[in-house]
Design a protein that fits this description.
Elements lengths: L1 H29 L3 E6 L37 H14 L4 E4 L11 H18 L2 E4 L15 H7 L10 E2 L6 E5 L3 E5 L15 H16 L3 E5 L11 H4 L8 H10 L4 E4 L6 E6 L5 E6 L9 E7 L3 E8 L5 H7 L5 H9 L1 H20 L14 H16 L8 H7 L12 H14 L9 H26 L1 H9 L5 H13 L4 H18 L9 E5 L6 H27 L8
Parallel strand pairs: 1-2, 2-3, 6-7, 7-8, 8-10
Antiparallel strand pairs: 1-11, 4-5, 5-6, 9-10, 11-12, 12-13
Length: about 575
């Protein structure tokens, strides 16, 4: 009997050893030192009992009538987070990182944070995988905020702080090891007293320098995660969208790169964009801006690290538990649920486009701008914005369309599949969120956009002049069967001299590189899928040469665009 048990134990031991060997062999074959799943800007909201449309105005769409100005799927947010965590549990990631804005109203509703923390705790129990978080501008505040710094650390104590090597006392920053070769520097980039601005300080920079040096001493490579962006993810971001990028960002990038940081993970801008910076010493640093998980394109990023290469991929959340969603929230139609089940990403894109359109429409209303009927300029403002909204909603093609109106102004509106100007504009906005912008200045979309804007400006200004400046003269003219003076003169001028003057062409040419960068991602780094150099790869001379090539390539594009547009209005002798 004893021999039988010994044989059974020996057999079990052989099975265990064989399984262990196979596991080790599989790991060695893959060669990965670290696998991460990274999300940002979860913006969790407690779902409403029933979906409802916006309080101001209405959205005329059978599917997306309940869209909001943030263009975020708020009622569905918790179910999207659940789907993300299920994918991480089933996937081969070692750790899950979340780069801030875990709760949408986290400053005022501690309960939102507690709900997110419960989801993360259940994930860790069931998967055995560790979650690391850092705060975002929606998560905590000072003064009378319901969630302060210590509250955040307490609620998320098990998600990074429990494994922290160091924790800063005056903010939420900490460090923790990831696997055998890497160290996370979770950097609190927020200002607790302001809604969106960064809170980077000299003291925080010193913290990164010291912790990066410690990591090197311990034979580890530093990875920084923070909420605000380190590098530009749109042209002149520090000017156009200054609250979304750290102050003195180029100097900060220079320092981080020379301190040995190769990868920075950020969020906040809600766009999927990867960009690179090379320091004066030839050290490269990449900033991976992660999209908002609960906005189109409903994606997160996976990263696989080896000494020589870092592979990254954007992964969409593809399926929701729509049965659970309907049980929790009333008001969804069969068409809405069917559309979510058929293609969740397409549904999210439609939701975003309608939300962006609604937000822009709100900004173009007199009420939003604080203009009252008693104001002296009410009539002029009403004429401008009423006509502008009419033109934006006007069909691009067919009778009573922008294309038909364009013929009267000698402006050709090319054929396309877009329904109206809103459809086109929001499509370009959605491309910014999704990443991989690919529209050149000669693309159909940019050509159509510029011509539509040109037509709208001409017509709206003419209508304004007729309705306000020439109101009395037009009354007399209409009695004799005439039309609006300004409108007719503008149309005549466009037919005789062309819709754009030489001066306007030149101004457009000067602005073209700026416009080009909005529509076409020209930094040479793929936003959503690609491979970059691993931490062991150091080639400062080659990096510096590449930086020079990128600069001169950008300069060439600038001159090409300038020449392209100028030659369209000035006949040069060549």
């Amino acid at each position: 009997m004893k021999r039988t048990w010994k044989r059974i134990l020996a057999a079990l031991l052989c099975v265990v050893l064989a399984a262990s060997a196979l596991s080790t062999a599989a790991y060695a074959a893959d060669g990965a030192d670290l696998r991460l799943a990274i999300a940002s800007d979860l913006h969790f909201n407690f779902p409403r009992e029933e979906i409802a449309g916006p309080e101001i105005g209405r959205i005329d769409d059978p599917l997306f009538w309940y869209a909001n100005r943030r263009a975020a799927m708020e009622d569905e947010s918790g179910f999207i987070i659940d789907a993300f965590l299920r994918a991480c549990a089933a996937g081969d990631c070692d750790y899950v990182l979340i780069a801030g804005d875990l709760a949408d109203s986290g400053r005022s509703l501690r309960e939102e944070h507690e709900a997110v923390a419960a989801k993360l705790a259940a994930f860790e129990r069931e998967s055995g995988k560790q979650v690391f978080v850092i705060d975002g501008n929606h998560d905590l505040g000072a003064g009378d905020s319901a969630t302060k710094m210590q509250d955040f650390k307490e609620i998320y104590a098990d998600f990074g702080y429990d494994r922290a090597l160091t924790v800063r006392e005056n903010d939420c920053s900490y460090t923790a090891d990831l696997g055998e070769k890497y160290r996370l520097i979770a950097l609190d980039s927020c200002d607790y007293t302001k809604s969106t601005e960064d809170g980077m300080t000299l003291d925080k920079l010193r913290f990164v320098r010291a912790e990066a040096a410690k990591a090197k001493q311990d034979g580890r490579q530093p990875i920084v995660m923070m909420h605000h962006n380190l590098l530009d993810h749109m042209p002149m971001q520090r000017i156009v969208s200054r609250n979304f990028i750290v102050r003195f960002h180029r100097t900060t990038a220079e320092l981080f790169a020379d301190w040995g940081v190769r990868v920075v993970i950020s969020g906040h801008e809600h766009c999927g964009d990867t960009t690179v910076f090379t320091s004066a010493l030839g050290n490269k640093i990449y900033d991976f801006a992660i999209t908002s998980l609960t906005m189109y394109p409903l994606s997160y990023m996976t990263m696989t690290f080896t000494d020589d290469a870092i592979r990254y991929d954007s992964v969409p959340v593809e399926k929701l538990d729509t049965d659970a969603l309907q049980n929790a929230v009333r008001g969804y139609s069969d068409d809405q649920i069917d559309a979510m089940n058929a293609d969740l990403n397409a549904y999210a894109k439609g939701f975003l486009k309608k939300g962006v359109e609604y937000r822009l429409w709100l900004s173009l209303t007199l009420e939003k701008m604080g203009v009252k009927e008693s104001d002296l300029y009410y009539g002029a403002a009403n004429a401008v914005f009423s006509r502008l909204n009419e033109l934006l909603r006007m069909p691009l093609y067919g009778d009573d369309s922008l294309q038909a109106l364009g013929k009267e102004y000698n402006i050709d509106i090319p054929d396309s599949g877009y329904a109206n100007a809103w459809d086109l504009a929001t499509e370009l906005v959605s491309m910014h969120y999704a990443g991989e912008e690919h529209y050149t200045l000669e693309s159909a979309e940019v050509t159509l956009l510029l011509r539509a804007v040109n037509l709208i400006l001409h017509d709206d200004l003419a209508q304004f002049n007729d309705a306000v400046l020439l109101k009395g003269a037009n009354k007399l003219l209409k009695k004799t069967g005439g039309e609006g003076i300004a409108e007719e003169l503008t149309k005549l001028g466009c037919r005789v001299f062309g819709p754009v003057t030489a001066g306007e062409f030149f101004l457009l040419a000067l602005a073209s590189p700026f416009l080009y960068e909005f529509a076409f991602d020209a930094d040479g780094v793929n936003d959503n899928h690609g491979t970059i150099e691993g931490y062991a790869v150091r080639d400062p001379a080659r990096n510096t040469a590449g930086k020079a090539r990128t600069f001169f390539a950008a300069l060439r594009v600038w001159f090409e665009n300038l020449l392209l547009i100028v030659t369209r209005c000035v006949r040069l002798p060549f």
